[in-house]
Design goal:
With 347 residues, the chain is mainly β. Helix content is 11%, strand content 46%. A four-stranded antiparallel beta sheet has the order 1-2-3-4, with no helix packed on it. A four-stranded antiparallel beta sheet has the order 5-6-7-8, with no helix packed on it.
Length: 347
């Protein structure tokens, strides 16, 4: 009797767990379907054109606009079960690459890199992965190469943490040959903000400096820094930002001469207890850091603008709440003046 009783309890517990998981998935799907508005995903071309991702009734679309022409319809429109994870202009700016994934990643972990010709609207699929491609970047001088970050798993590393991508590495894809190259074999817990050098055969990413961590305390004490990865010898990667200090670097971009970085980091905590993220400049020659924005908001996603004279970035006016409210800004590198960038969907 006791054995049957235990089996019954286990069976009932299992059914309850399955039911709760099912309800969670349904709830998540409903929330995804409600997703609306501007996102933090965008790219800027040398002629000032801005491509960005906007959700309408849960459906993600890519919109393109500049000072001379505004397209009322998206150049790419997906279903509400999908999402766009990143976009990138080609070197000749005739095409735009983008990553498509399913919103229910725990159920269907798959992502596809596609390219659309901006003039003809012709699309082609380049890469399909049973994994999560989180970021893409065209080589800034050669439109035949696309670099990307890929996570092998999408899971929660602790019972109280939400599922996130893990086990990252750096890859590239040559369009003309169809050849994929795996540049690293690090299986990093986190890797983000991919940048590709236009002057050297190198890529840059943000990841934890935990290579020599041996204990849990060592891992806890590690920080997110910018790493330089020589593509012809990726095993010799090294820290390219300040090697000491307690700033965690998240998003960043190369400065115009690639002699430094403009990066996002926590500056201080606001009166409401929410972290305030600002942009900072790091000079690789002098190893000096300085704060360059003072918006007391959530400032992120810096991108180098036309001619290297302007830095674009995003500000989330509702950071810390359930719904984000993104706005695009730009800053003159020489005088530090900041202004909002009018986007048709921005309100």
């Amino acid at each position: 009797m006791k054995k049957k009783w235990i089996v019954s309890i286990v069976t009932i517990s299992g059914l309850i767990t399955i039911t709760l998981i099912g309800l969670g998935i349904i709830f998540d799907q409903e929330e995804y379907e409600k997703r609306e508005g501007f996102t933090s995903i965008y790219d800027v071309a040398s002629d000032g054109s801005i491509a960005y991702v906007f959700y309408e009734k849960g459906k993600p679309g890519i919109y393109l606009e500049n000072n001379s022409k505004i397209q009322s319809n998206p150049i790419v429109q997906l279903e509400d079960t999908q999402e766009i994870l990143d976009i990138s202009f080609s070197a000749d700016e005739k095409e735009l690459a983008y990553v498509v994934a399913y919103k229910s990643k725990e159920i269907d972990l798959k992502s596809v890199i596609k390219v659309i010709n901006i003039e003809s609207s012709k699309m082609k699929e380049l890469v399909s992965e049973k994994a999560l491609v989180t970021e893409i970047e065209y080589h800034p001088k050669n439109e035949d190469f696309i670099y990307y970050l890929k996570a092998q798993t999408f899971e929660n590393y602790s019972p109280i943490a939400s599922a996130r991508p893990h086990d990252f590495d750096l890859f590239s894809y040559q369009i003309s040959s169809g050849e994929t190259t795996k540049h690293t074999n690090l299986k990093k817990y986190m890797m983000q903000s991919l940048q590709v050098s236009s002057t050297e055969n190198k890529a840059y990413v943000s990841m934890f400096d935990d290579e020599h961590a041996e204990t849990a305390d060592d891992i806890f004490a590690s920080h997110q820094r910018i790493f330089e990865i020589p593509l012809d010898n990726p095993h010799s990667y090294q820290v390219a930002s300040l090697k000491e200090g307690n700033k965690d670097i998240y998003d960043f971009t190369l400065t115009p001469n690639e002699d430094g970085f403009i990066f996002q980091a926590v500056n201080e905590t606001g009166d409401n207890g929410i972290y305030q993220y600002e942009l900072f400049h790091y000079n690789r020659e002098t190893e000096e850091e300085k704060q360059i924005t003072d918006l007391k908001e959530h400032t992120s996603n810096p991108t180098l603008g036309p001619d290297g004279k302007v830095i674009y970035f995003m500000v989330d006016k509702q950071f810390g709440s359930r719904d984000s409210d993104y706005h695009l800004y730009r800053m003159d590198i020489n005088n530090g003046e900041v202004e909002t960038v009018p986007i048709r969907h921005d309100s």
